[in-house]
Predict the structure.
Amino acid sequence: MSDSPHSRRAFFRQVVKRYVEPAVDYLDKQAPPPTVLRPPGAVPEGEFLSLCERCHACVSACPADAIRPIGQDGPLKGTPGIVAAEQPCVVCTDLDCMPACPTGALQVIGRQQITIGTALVAQDLCVRSKGECCQSCVDLCPLGSRAIQIGADNLIEVLDGCIGCGVCEHVCHTTPKAITVTPNPSRAEPAEVTPRSGVRALVITPEREVLLMKLREPGSGGEFWISPGGGREPGESDTVALARELAEEVGTFDYTIGPAIWRRTSRFTWKDKHYAQEDTFYQVETAWFEPGDGEGLDGCEREAFRGFRWWTLEEMEAATETFFPRRLTTCLRRLFTEGAPDTPYETGM
């Protein structure tokens, strides 16, 4: 099969048409509200709704046409969702929906970390409990025997490896469905979120090279590039906090702190603690220098630190690595073209 997006899209459409009948369009406003699953990599629902811009980049990227804009009126309208009974996630090879998201509503995670939902079996509705030997849900599961199997009692058994893709619900031919997927409760808002405010330095040379630091998230192991900076200590001004963070992370160098140019609101988990952080980015001008090795960082930050690098805009645009903010290259191009804004604007996640 060709690796082109069009070939993959055609392939998945053929799989769906082969095994299931066309489903009723859930955008019909007269239909009862369906159970909506979020795409792979979705952050907790409250954060998802605040970050998602209804741009439908994930909708366009999905080769199985599983991700669709929700049509029912209400706060979910226009946000991307999956209705498993109509078209499930097929856990495609490239998982294109996650990197397509420009705002961070969908995070790029590994296949083993996906938790869309959980499949539940109503054994009294399953035809196997009546002596029939149907096993479509087992045969067609993209995760195979790590997610679902026929148990010792000859009934369907959902295992811990289930990610809630919805293929089992989709292919179940009973009415009502004997196997359904419920949204993952871990996507609910965490019980305790710590608010935090911070500052970051967009360190730029006259040649428009930008200094970024690489960090590794302790839980997932995911690596990303971000501007130097961090949280403000109690009583610190932005300028004092920025100078302290630069000294701790980058080392000693000559620089000029310019205007505040961006703001970024993000929610993240670090060392099992949940944070809601608001960062202000400042333009910092300097000549090229060799940055330090982060020796001023504390234990937790030191563990995550992976080094510094000077980047050109063109190098960032060509790279496959993860940058925060997600729209860093877009914001940089605007900065280089239009100059510093009169007031800082929101970058998105």
Observations:
- Confidence is low (pLDDT under 50) at residues 19-31.
